[in-house]
Write a structure and sequence with these properties.
β11 and β12 form a beta hairpin. 49% of the residues are buried. The chain is built from 10 helices and 14 strands. It is globular. It is 15% helix and 24% strand. The protein has one domain.
Length: 455
C-alpha cells in the first residue's frame, strides 16, 4: 500500500532548503475549469476537501467538504445564490482500494420553498427585514422568503438509508439590516444527526487563494500577488462522520489494517428525454442521473487535462482515468513553464503515483481519487503548514486536503521539479482567517459591505 510518498517529500524539503530562487507559477483549484461546467455554476464544484477533523476532541471524525458556485459576488440581489434543486450533489468513498468509489456514498437533494412575508405580500425580494431574519424557522424567520431544505441519504454497500429530511440550508448573507447576526443564523444550520454525524449546507467565504488574473494571462505573474478570490463567496456542503462509518471493517483511525480511503465529489443532472414530434423536453424524477462534474485532487482538470477533453473528463468516473493517461505521462504544464521562464521542468515524481494509485508503481488500476490515510493524526490548525508535506506536515495534501493547504505551490514544485522548488504565486493565505471548528470555512462576505482586496 502506498505510504503517501512521505519519505520522498521529506527529501524534497531538504533539497528546497539548499536551492536558490526559481521562477514562479500558479493555477486555480477548480474554478470554471471546463467549457460546459463554466456555464452551469450551481453544478460547478470549486473545491473538494477531505481530512481528519482537527477540531479539539473530534479527531475520530472525517470531514468531507464540497464548495460549489465559484465567484459568488455577495451583492448579487435580488436573486441571491442558492443550491440547485435540479442537481444531485454527492460524496463517493472507496474503502477497499479497488479504485472504484462505490462503497459509501452520501447524496444531497435540495428543495425550494416560497413562504413568509415575501410570499404573502408578493414582494420582489427573496429576503427582507420585515422583521429581520434571525432564525431559519419559527418567529424571526418571516423575512426568509425563499428557504431551502435538503435531504441527506447514505448508500453503503448498496443499501440506501435516509439520514435526515427537511434540514435547512443557510441563506446567502444579504447584509446587517436583513440578517443582523449572520453567524448565529449560520450556527442554526449545523445539524447533529444520529451516529455522531454533523452536516451543514449554506454560504461561506471562498477559501481558495490565488492571483487568478495573472496566472491565466499566460503566467504574467507579479510580486506581491493579488488574491483575486478575495471578497467572493461559495456555497458549501460540509459533512462530518465517524471514520468507522467509512472504513471497510467499521474500525476507526486506530485500525491500521485498512487506513487509506479514496474519495471524490460529484454533481449530476437528470437525463433529458425528447418527447413527441414537437421536440418538447422534460426533466423529471424518472430520468437517470448524468454526472456533469467530478473533483478529487485539485488542479487536475485545470492544469493537466487538455481543453479538448475537459468536458469529457468531467463526465467520466475516476476509475476510467486510463483513457487520459497521456496527460499524466507528458504534462503540458512542463512545456509551458519552459517557454515562459526558460527553465526546463523535470517532475520530481511520476504523477500516476501521486494522483492515480494506492501503491506506487502499481498501474494495473488507475483511478483519480483524493486519498486519505486516516492513521495519520491531524495537525492542529495553529500548527498546520500550508506547504503540507513540503513543510513537514504530513496531514495535508496529497494526504487528503484541508482548506489551508496551498495546493498551488505544492503542485507546481512537484510538477516543475528541481528548477521550481521555490515557486509561488505570492498569495500565501486566505483573505479571512479559517476557523478550527466545523464547518471549517469562514463566514461569507455580506452583500452590503463586501469589498475585494487589491494591492
Amino acid at each position: 500500500m502506498r505510504k503517501y510518498l512521505y519519505s520522498t517529500f521529506a527529501g524534497l524539503v531538504v533539497i528546497a532548503l539548499v536551492m536558490g530562487l526559481a521562477p514562479t507559477s500558479s493555477m486555480a483549484a477548480s474554478h470554471r475549469e471546463a467549457p460546459l461546467i463554466s456555464l452551469d455554476p450551481t453544478a460547478d464544484i470549486s473545491d473538494f476537501f477531505m481530512f481528519r477533523s482537527y477540531e479539539p476532541g473530534k479527531d475520530d471524525k472525517v470531514v468531507l467538504i464540497m464548495d460549489v458556485i465559484p465567484g459568488e459576488e455577495p451583492s448579487s440581489g435580488p436573486n441571491y445564490w442558492n443550491f440547485d434543486p435540479g442537481v444531485l450533489y454527492a460524496f463517493h468513498i472507496d474503502n477497499d482500494t479497488d479504485g472504484i468509489a462505490n462503497d459509501v456514498r452520501f447524496e444531497f437533494r435540495f428543495k425550494n420553498e416560497f413562504r413568509g412575508i415575501n410570499n404573502d405580500l408578493g414582494l420582489f425580494l427573496s429576503y427582507v427585514a420585515l422583521p429581520p431574519i434571525e432564525h431559519l424557522d419559527g418567529p424571526g424567520s418571516e423575512g426568509l422568503g425563499l428557504r431551502q431544505t435538503y435531504t441527506l441519504t447514505m448508500i453503503r454497500n448498496g443499501n440506501r438509508k435516509t439520514l435526515a429530511r427537511g434540514l435547512f440550508a443557510v441563506p446567502s448573507n444579504v447584509g446587517p439590516r436583513t440578517m443582523p447576526d449572520y453567524e448565529a443564523l449560520a450556527a442554526e444550520g449545523i445539524f447533529e444527526l444520529d451516529n455522531g454525524i454533523r452536516v451543514f449546507a449554506g454560504q461561506r467565504d471562498d477559501p481558495f487563494y490565488i492571483d487568478l488574473g495573472a496566472v491565466f494571462d499566460t503566467l504574467n505573474l507579479r510580486s506581491p500577488g493579488t488574491d483575486m478570490l478575495s471578497g467572493f463567496n461559495v456555497h458549501t456542503i460540509a459533512l462530518e462522520v465517524p471514520a468507522s462509518l467509512l472504513t471497510r471493517d467499521g474500525k476507526g483511525p486506530g485500525d491500521t489494517s485498512q487506513p487509506v480511503l479514496g474519495a471524490y465529489a460529484s454533481t449530476s443532472r437528470r437525463a433529458v428525454r425528447v418527447l413527441g414530434g414537437d421536440e418538447r423536453v422534460r426533466d423529471n424524477d424518472e430520468n437517470s442521473w448524468v454526472q456533469v462534474q467530478r473533483l478529487a485532487n485539485p488542479l487536475i482538470n485545470e492544469a493537466i487535462i487538455g481543453t479538448a477533453d475537459k468536458d469529457r473528463w468531467n463526465s467520466r468516473e475516476p476509475q476510467k482515468e486510463k483513457q487520459f493517461i497521456d496527460y499524466y505521462l507528458n504534462p503540458r504544464l512542463d512545456a509551458a513553464l519552459q517557454v515562459v521562464f526558460g527553465a526546463p521542468a523535470f517532475p520530481l515524481l511520476d504523477l500516476r503515483d501521486v494522483l492515480l494509485t494506492y501503491t506506487a508503481g502499481d498501474y494495473s488500476q488507475l483511478s483519480e481519487l483524493l486519498r486519505l490515510n486516516i492513521s495519520v493524526a491531524p495537525t492542529p490548525l495553529a500548527s498546520q503548514n500550508p506547504l503540507t508535506v513540503l513543510g513537514g506536515d504530513g496531514a495535508g495534501w496529497p494526504n487528503g486536503r484541508r482548506p489551508i493547504d496551498d495546493v498551488t505551490d505544492v503542485a507546481i514544485r512537484v510538477i516543475g521539479g528541481t528548477n521550481y522548488l521555490s515557486a509561488s504565486d505570492s498569495v500565501d493565505a486566505n483573505d479571512m482567517p479559517l476557523p478550527e471548528t466545523f464547518p471549517f470555512l469562514a463566514a461569507p462576505w455580506d452583500g452590503r459591505n463586501r469589498f475585494h482586496t487589491n494591492p
